[in-house]
Each structure stands twice: as C-alpha cells, then as structure tokens.
Amino acid sequence: LWTPGNIIEDMTARVRQQVGEDHVVLGLSGGVDSSVVGALLHKAIGDQLTCVFVDTGLLRHQEGDQVMATFARHMGVRVIRVDAEERFLKALEGVTDPEEKRRIIGRLFVEVFDEEAGRLTNARWLAQGTIYPDVIESAGSSTGKAHVIKSHHNVGGLPETMKLGLVEPLRELFKDEVRRIGVELGLPSEMVYRHPFPGPGLGVRILGEVKKEYADLLRRADHIFIEELRRDGLYDQVSQAFAVFLPVRSVGVMGDGRRYDFVVALRAVETIDFMTARWAHLPYEFLDRVSRRIINEIPGISRVTYDISGKPPATIEWE
Ligand code: XMP
Description:
Layout: H1 4-19, E1 23-28, H2 32-45, E2 49-55, H3 63-74, E3 78-83, H4 85-92, H5 98-119, E4 123-127, H6 132-139, H7 148-154, E5 165-167, H8 175-184, H9 189-192, H10 212-231, E6 240-254, E7 257-270, E8 278-279, H11 284-297, E9 301-306
Parallel strand pairs: 1-2, 1-4, 2-3, 4-5, 7-9
Antiparallel strand pairs: 6-7, 7-8
Helix pairs in contact: 1-2, 1-8, 2-8, 4-5, 10-11
C-alpha cells in the first residue's frame, strides 16, 4: 500500500541496511529533493549524516538562513554552511554569456562542495536527491540544465581520493510523491511546495554580468513579489514566479527628484511540465500593488514591467 508513512518506513530501513554504521554526506540546496533526502536520512541514521550547504550568494532572500533554521536549529541536523559568495562573484566577473555563466557556476559549485565533503574524512557515502524523472532524463540526452551536482557525481566526477558510494533513496519516486513524503517527515509546507529554482540561481536572473549590487536589488524585488503572491493566495495558483534584473537604467520621478535607476521584470507562468507555459494573467490591482511596493521600497529600481511572453516562443527564464 502506497502511503507516505509506509514508504518512509521502507526507505529508512533500506538506507540503514545500505550504509550500516558508515557516515554519509549530503549536499543541501534548499530545493525540495535534497531537503527531503536530508529529513529522511536524519530520521534513518541521525548523526551519521552531515550536510553541506553551499551559499553561492545567488540564492533568494534569506534562503541560507532558512535552510539553517529548518535543518540545523529546528531538526538538529549537522549542517556545514559554506559562505562562497565572494568566490562565485569573482569567478563571474566580466562574464555575460548565459551558458558560460551556467558552466562557471556549475563547475565552482562542485569544486566548493567537493572541498568541504573532502574534509569529512570518515564519509563513505554521498547522498543525492535524484528522483525518477532525473533518472529518465540522464538516460537520454543531457540538456546541460540538469542539476549539476547530480549529473556531475552521477558520471563519476568525484575526486580520486573520495571514493564514495551513492545513496539515492528517492530514485523511484515522482515529484508529487517526494512532496508528500516531505510533509510527512515534518518539513514546512512552504519549503515542500516551493516553486522550482534553477541551479545557477540568480546568476541567470541577472541579465549579463552578475554583480553583488544587482543580486541584492533583485532579491528584494523578488521577495516583495513572492510575499504579495502568498498574501493574495496566488502563489500556489502559478507554477513559477520570480523577478528578473535588467541592467538598464530608466528615468523616473519621486517627490521633487528625478531618478535614473534600474528596471525589474516580473515573470509568472502556469504550466504542467515546464516544456510549454502560459504567462499568468495576474489581476491588474495585484500587479499595481507589487509594482508600487518595489519602486517605493527599493532605491535603485525605478521601473517594473510584467512579462507577457508564452513558452514557446520565449523560455521561462530570461537567460
Ligand atoms: P526554461 O527557461 O528553459 O526553464 O523555459 C524551464 C524550467 O527549467 C528551469 N531552469 C533551470 N533549472 N538549471 C536548473 O536546474 C538551469 O540552468 C535552468 N535553466 C532553467 C526553469 O527555472 C524552469 O523551471
């Protein structure tokens, strides 16, 4: 019988049998899959689990703090948080091409993760949030957009000194099953039902060159948009919503003064499979409120636009 409770029982037993007394390392990303693996392994093997959370500086508003609050403080999971913002920003300096940015972020992510994991000299296993659709996808062609940590380690890119076995408890599950298990394991539902977030993070939502100043502005704008969607009960009605930073300046007026600041685009889509998508027809009053809040509350942004492009021909992300 498929109930989340039964599946959890079954999976924890299998994990215990697989790893025995050994130690396991897991890369937590803040996403649903790795979070559920974290909660599951904590239940199965407790202190034998160490998580590594790489803060790339390209995450959403307070995302790192939330991961630490949920796992470390609340659940008592051992989590190593690596502040790698400066390294990522440095590596991205002067880089404007989207695919080049993806390659740099992906490569550096694996490098930083491996450095940390390599310090855990007693780790024998690497846990991953691979789910059934990932298994199918990597059997076919690689799109280059798959989660880098998964694809990297799956193809055996681990350093020679670190011969870790793989623990992939979610390999046979679909996303909705993973979510149900996450809820059953006690993860907050805002985490379990969060919109997808691309591996390269804000790196592909800041058009062109990535700078800290831009990332900070974008985080604030994105947070306002998401907060208002939740307030109006619209968050769960759209499949994915986010803000995009446009590094162009536009004139505005505020009080007696003239502003000449950056532009933000809001994107919200409805989709089943993310292969095609319709732009969400959000209420004008709602968009009006979000736009006013962003421009009034964030010095540095003088204009907000709403993206009315479907996929195809446009993609969901801007880069
Ligand atoms: P596009 O922009 O291709 O996005 O219409 C479709 C879905 O994929 C996500 N996406 C990514 N996910 N790494 C990821 O892990 C990436 O490089 C990447 N690019 C796009 C996007 O957020 C959407 O959900």
